[in-house]
Amino acid sequence: MVQIETKEGIENLEKIAALDGVDTCSRPWASGSWCLQLLLLGPADLSMAYGYPILNPDFHPEVEKLIQHMKDVAHAAGKKWWTFFAVIGNLLTSI
């Protein structure tokens, strides 16, 4: 699993997604385990890296575009993608 949350990560997203072995596995030592080729996006840190507010009340439209771009790149490379954010004060979580 690779976490993307910086400008450098976004700039190299296609190269990162093309890597073999970008996997996250459940109990790889056990029978019935599974592995996913997964890219994880940290939208709050990515927002800060680009100088945008984290939530106002939603992510900045440019960050929304970056999230969509990551989704498109991940799928084109045959990988899954996942994102989440949590605002501790409001106990808000989105997956």
Automatic annotation (TrEMBL):
GO molecular function terms noted in the UniProt entry: catalytic activity; metal ion binding
Record keywords: Metal-binding
SUPFAM superfamilies reported in the protein's UniProt record: Phosphoenolpyruvate/pyruvate domain (SSF51621)
Domain HpcH/HpaI aldolase/citrate lyase residues, every copy: 1-79
Keyword GTP-binding attached: no
UniProt-recorded name of the protein: HpcH/HpaI aldolase/citrate lyase domain-containing protein
